[in-house]
Design brief:
single chain, about 550 residues, alpha/beta, Immunoglobulin-like, 2 domains, eight-stranded parallel barrel, seven-stranded antiparallel β-sheet, 15 helices, 25 strands, globular
Length: about 550
């Protein structure tokens, strides 16, 4: 019997025994599932669901890719598509999980061919080997599919951030063209000795690096012009480029072309933000230009989609500054130069240090990140994760602590990123080589397994607690008692308070809430899904769970 199955067995037995003998303790009154208090969206408390489109859900078999050669394990296309995301949005999967932001790998057209560089035949299923920034990859869907997905997400109260790349093109293959030398460099390899050897270089061999430092104006690559002509959109694309450069006054440099192409997606689809790839490998001035143009496009999109994009909001940019640790503050140190990416366009950065800090006790973990947030006065936001698509050292790689992973990720101060399958313990050690191990397909049939259902239920309860209480991720943290904590949030007219207790005894327990909630107040436990009342500064709860998640909720 697995650990999670043992948890289920014990919980059921205790649940029955406790509730058959509850006369001597206060009962939790059951609550409905759709009567939560509606809270305004707060980016600082957001829960982002990150998925590899090709690995998530296959809803359209007609665009499944069948290559002429057999790819290495998990290095070809698995069939997931944009319609698959839409299907799960409409099903309410993300809402039940408490996620309020969707982030998917790049949807733009990737290379047609393959590479074989020691890991076997590999295709661009992940979306980062771009061929044409102006097109959607046909193996994933169409532009119409993207717009339908974004609309469906907005209708469900979800925001959408798209993954974008300016640093590099796709690798050269037998079926794909070579970008011209005035657009890309093919060496040297990045050595990371200083700023220059991190920025003016190629990440790996055969991954052409965009010349983001050039001052020489360039034309649209000939192959791209020919492609547009075959697709019947050459005049439209060239005219649009002329209008962009005339409006902005930007020189026709490679990175400004790409900025134009990716910000067009904001206007076309009405998306809410970008997750930006390989941040430290591009001059920070480029990112500042991207943010300025993105915000301009966002203002246009607000008028185009007035019922979907709130007038008061700004465009959001999340950066992947590989190796960035939030504990080090806003500056990233290249050795010879320190850069603050927050003042160069980014609203938040991914915190690569959390996978190590997750080994701390709850008290130490929460205190550490509350301290960082309070030190920067709530600015310079960061996003935690326990696993990712390219971090070979995730927390709990063997998936032995799926429940604990959820508790630590979802309750630590800061923004949270769920990597697809975290919520069910999807394997991170798949039969594949390199980072492909981390990218197995989401096995929806496995949801029939009890262990996965227990894990999903746990993550859903934590997610509902977060989404209904901005204090969880964005509030001031306080220690109340051993493994009993409080959070208080008050900003922009929003006032929210929570208390949560971890590693409590099963059965009857007393949770101190004095100072945060008053006697007579009715609180809701998001874990056992019931109401209880504060008496003498305490809440009495009797159930088989070891977690209590308390907040206010409509009766």
């Amino acid at each position: 019997m697995t650990k999670i199955s043992q948890y289920l067995f014990v919980s059921i037995i205790l649940f029955l025994s406790v509730f058959l003998t509850m006369g001597c303790s206060q009962k939790l009154h059951p609550a409905g599932s759709e009567n939560s208090t509606k809270q305004p969206f707060v980016w600082e408390n957001s829960t982002i669901y990150f998925l590899l489109t090709d690995r998530f859900y296959n809803a359209d078999k007609s665009n499944d890719f069948k290559p002429d050669v057999t790819p290495a394990k998990l290095r070809g296309y698995e069939g997931g598509d944009i319609k698959g995301i839409t299907a799960k949005v409409e099903e309410g999967y993300f809402n039940k999980l408490g996620a309020n932001v969707l982030w998917m790998t790049p949807l733009v057209e990737n290379i047609e061919g393959f590479v074989d560089e020691g890991t076997g035949i590999s295709f661009g299923f992940h979306g980062y080997w771009i061929k044409d920034w102006t097109a959607i990859d046909p193996r994933l869907g169409t532009k119409e599919d993207v717009r339908n997905m974004v609309k469906a997400a907005h209708d469900k109260g979800l925001k959408v951030i798209m993954d974008v790349v300016i640093n590099h093109t796709g690798p050269v293959t037998a079926k794909d063209p070579v970008w011209p030398s005035d657009w890309v460099r093919t060496g040297p390899r990045c050595s990371y000795k200083d700023y220059r050897s991190t920025v003016e270089c190629t990440l790996v061999d055969n991954l052409p690096d965009i010349l983001t430092n050039t001052t020489k104006e360039v034309e649209v690559p000939a192959y791209l012009q020919e492609k547009w002509k075959k697709e019947g959109r050459f005049e439209q694309e060239m005219s649009s480029l002329d209008a962009f450069f005339k409006r902005t006054g930007h020189p026709r440099l490679p990175h400004f072309y790409i900025i134009k192409w990716i910000t067009d997606m904001i206007i076309e689809y009405g998306i809410d933000g970008f997750r930006v790839d390989t941040v430290k490998h591009v001059e920070e001035s480029v990112w500042k230009s991207l943010k300025n143009e993105a915000q301009y496009a966002f203002e246009v999109a607000k008028k185009k989609f007035p019922t979907e994009l709130p007038k008061e909001e700004s465009f959001f940019m999340l950066g992947e500054l590989y190796g960035y640790n939030a504990v080090n503050g806003p500056l990233y140190d290249f050795g010879d130069k320190k850069v603050d990416y927050y003042i160069n366009g980014f609203d938040a950065l991914i915190n690569f240090g959390f996978v190590w800090d997750a080994k701390l006790s709850y008290t130490e973990l929460f205190k550490k990140y509350d301290g960082i947030i309070q030190l920067n006065k709530g600015e310079n936001q960061f996003v935690h994760y326990v696993s990712s698509h390219d971090d070979g050292n995730p927390y709990d790689k063997k998936r032995e602590r799926v429940l604990e992973s959820g508790t630590k990720l979802m309750l630590t101060p800061g923004m949270a990123q769920i990597y697809y399958g975290d919520e069910i313990g999807r394997t991170l050690t798949a039969d594949a080589t390199g980072d492909a191990q981390l990218r197995s397909a989401m096995d929806w049939k496995s949801f029939e397994d009890n262990d996965k259902m227990i894990a999903l239920d746990h993550w859903q309860k934590l997610g509902q607690f977060r989404i209904n209480n901005p204090a969880v991720g964005a509030g001031k943290h306080v220690d109340i008692d051993k493994n009993v904590f409080g959070r208080m949030y008050q900003k922009a007219g929003i006032k929210n308070t929570v208390v949560f207790a971890l590693e409590q005894q099963r059965g009857e327990k007393l949770i101190p809430v004095k100072g945060l909630f008053k006697d007579g107040e009715v609180l809701y436990d998001y874990y056992s899904k019931g109401f209880t009342k504060v008496e003498k500064g305490m809440v009495k709860i009797n159930n088989p769970f070891q977690i209590v998640l308390l907040g206010k909720k409509n009766l």
